[in-house]
Specification:
The chain is α/β, with parallel strands linked by helices. Helix content is 32%, strand content 17%. The chain has 9 helices and 9 strands. The strands form 2 sheets. It has a 7-stranded parallel sheet with strand order 3-2-1-4-5-6-9, with helices on both faces. Strands 7-8 form a two-stranded parallel sheet. Strand 5, helix 4 and strand 6 (170-176) form a beta-alpha-beta unit. Helix 2 (68-75) crosses helix 3 and helix 3 (93-113) packs parallel to helix 4 (148-167). It starts with 15 loop residues before the first strand and ends in a 17-residue tail after the last helix. Bound molecules: D-galactaro-1,5-lactone.
């Protein structure tokens, strides 16, 4: 069942002619789909998976990121893209490769050929998941991916850099923390991103002028923060929520019994416990 549009529209944001939302059937796609409608005349929603019925002001396009011809059609007539498509968790490399490496390449090539000027790329905190929890890093710190998914998001950020320097396509890469209705666990004290703040961050990334090629972390107003994220203020993002509001509830749940568990030592959390996968591929 689809949500109805939210009333939290950022008044200063421009109204786009046509926005494209990829990965619209995924967890965050379902959150952003009703919220983005009020920022555009037409919201083109896309996924490989079933999208349900079109709402007023929507165009539904089932498209595979791996299909270059489909991607050219998908990007046609679009002002800006919010790219959530692809795999969103750690997977074996042969699963990540087509969705997140080939797929993001097809997206940028289609954007170049269709003259799309702005992409908001859902990157991930897993680009730097091998930093220790408690360590504070900036988006300029060396990428330390915690798996193939993190590597694929680092690749997407590098591709964004190439397409800005060579072709002037602007990208805001959002290294999203954990965006959910509530923080899931103690790691959430530092990386939780509320759904309302997700909307604010995406809208700021679509609307700010002259973003060039920018990488920022995506969190609410959390403490302790692991990320020195001052650049995000420059695009006008002001988080309104904080994981602090859930502290008592989370601290009432048992902490990990093993202090050496990589899931509690590293910023990437439980992704550090996934893999290696069978090789050669099955
Ligand atoms: C991500 O990048 C995933 O897309 C999301 O499902 C969460 O696992 C999140 O990271 C996280 O780190 O908790």
């Amino acid at each position: 069942m689809m949500n109805t549009p939210t009333e939290t529209r950022v008044a200063s944001a421009p109204v786009f002619h046509r926005l494209l939302l990829t990965g619209a059937a995924g967890a965050l796609g379902r959150v952003l789909r009703p919220r983005l409608r009020s920022y555009c005349q037409t919201l083109r929603v896309s996924d490989l998976a079933e999208l349900g019925a079109a709402f007023a002001g929507e165009e539904l396009v089932r498209a595979d990121l791996q299909d270059p011809v489909a991607m050219l059609g998908l990007l046609d007539g679009v002002d800006a893209v919010v790219h959530l498509g692809g795999v969103s968790v750690e997977q074996p490399f042969h699963v990540v490769l087509p969705a997140n490496i080939v797929g993001v390449f097809n997206l940028y090539e289609a954007a170049r050929l269709k003259n799309v000027r702005r992409i908001v790329f859902a990157s991930s905190n897993h680009v730097t998941g091998c930093y220790r929890q408690g360590e504070t890093i900036t988006p300029a710190a060396r990428p330390r991916p915690d798996g193939y998914y993190g590597v694929s998001k680092a690749f997407g950020e590098d591709l964004a850099s190439l397409y800005f320097d060579r072709y002037g396509i602007e990208t805001v890469s959002l290294r999203l923390g954990n965006s959910a209705a509530e923080p899931a666990d103690r790691r959430g004290f530092s990386i939780w991103l509320s759904h309302d703040d997700l909307e604010r961050l995406v809208v700021a990334s679509l609307s700010a002028e002259n973003v060039g090629c920018l990488t920022v972390y995506g969190t609410s107003d959390n403490s302790p923060s692991w990320w020195d994220n001052s650049a995000v203020r420059d695009i006008g993002y002001r988080p309104q929520d904080t994981a602090e509001a859930f502290r008592a509830k989370i601290e009432a749940t048992p902490a990990s019994a093993d202090p050496q568990d990589p899931a509690v030592l590293y910023q990437g959390g439980r992704f550090l416990n996934i893999g290696p996968f069978p090789f050669p591929f099955p």
